[in-house]
C-alpha cells in the first residue's frame, strides 16, 4: 500500500511539474499539421519554413548582394563602398557593420585555416591591411572581435578577456578614424558588458553615444543588456532605463518600444502567474510598442525588430488578429529576437506563426479578412 501511495504522489506531481516545464520562457510546443487546431499559413501567402531567411530581421537587398559578392570573390571593396555610402549615424549602418562582422566570424568558424587552406574571413584581414584608415573597415573589425569573443570563448576566462581587450582597443582606433561616428562606441557597449565596466565608466561611454546619436534604437538595445538583472544591473534599473528612453523618444521614434524589450529580458523562466501576458505591465509595454510601430517611418531599419518581438508577445497574449497584422509585415525574415535565441530560428518562428493563424481562424478570421 505504501508503494501505491508513492506512485500516486508521483503521478500527481507530474500533473503539476510537466505543464510548468512546458511553459518555460519562449517555449511553445509545435502543432502537428493534422492536429484539429492546425491551420495552413500558406493560405496567407506566408513563406515556407525552409525558405525563411535567418540572417536579417527584414529585407536589405543591397547588403545581401554585397555579402554574396564579397564571400564569393573574397574581395572586400564592395563592402567598403557600401558602408561608405551608408549614413554614419543611422541604424542601417550599424546593422550592416554587424552583418559584415558576423559573416567574417562565421566564415572563420567554418574554415579556421587548416594547412593549405585560406582561413575564412580573409577578406576582412586584407581590408584592414590595405585600407588601415578606412573607418568602415575599422568598425567591422572591432565588431568581428566582439563576436569572436562571445562565439569562441567562455566569459571570465583569460581567452575571453584577451579578445575583449583587443576589441576595446579596436573600438578606440575606429573612433579616432571617425570622431562623429557613434558606431565604435556602440560596439564598445558589448565590450563593457563582457568586461564588466564599473557603472561610472559605462555611463561615460553612454554619454558619448547620446552626444552623437541620442535616438539610436540599436544603441539603446545594446545598452539595455548591461542594465539587465542577468548582467550588471537589475530588473528595476533595466525598466527605468527603458522607460526613460521611451519618455524622451521623439515623434516617430521606435524608442517607445523599449519597455517591451526590457520585459522580454526579464521574463520568468517558469511562468507561475495566470494570464501573465495579459498583465498590466506586459499590456502597457505592448501598447507602447504598437504605438511606436504605427508612428514609425515604414523604412525604419529597426521596425522589423519591434514587429518580431510583438509577434511573440501578441501570440502569447492570444491577441491573434494583431499578431497576424505584424506577421504580414515581417514574414520571410527571422533574424531577430526572440527567434535568434533558438537553435532553429526558422522553426521557432514557424510555430508562433502557425499558432497565430490557428487562433485567428478559430475566432472567425480568414485570408480575406486580413488587411494587406
Helix-strand blueprint:
Elements: H1 2-22, H2 61-73, H3 77-84, H4 91-110, H5 122-130, H6 135-152, H7 158-177, H8 183-195, H9 199-212, H10 217-227, H11 235-247, H12 258-265, H13 280-295, H14 303-316, H15 320-330, H16 345-362
Helix pairs in contact: 2-3, 4-6, 5-6, 6-7, 6-8, 7-8, 8-9, 8-10, 10-11, 10-12, 11-12, 12-13, 13-14, 14-15, 15-16
Overview of this protein structure:
This protein is mainly α and 372 residues long. It is built from 16 helices and no strands. The longest helix has 21 residues, at 2-22. It has helices spanning 2-22, 61-73, 77-84, 91-110, 122-130, 135-152, 158-177, 183-195, 199-212, 217-227, 235-247, 258-265, 280-295, 303-316, 320-330, 345-362. The model is unreliable at 1-27 and 29-37 (pLDDT under 50). The protein is 61% helix and 0% strand.
What is the structural class? mainly alpha
The poorly predicted ranges are: 1-27, 29-37
- The whole-angstrom Rg is 22 Å
Principal-axes shape call: globular
Q: How many strand elements?
A: 0
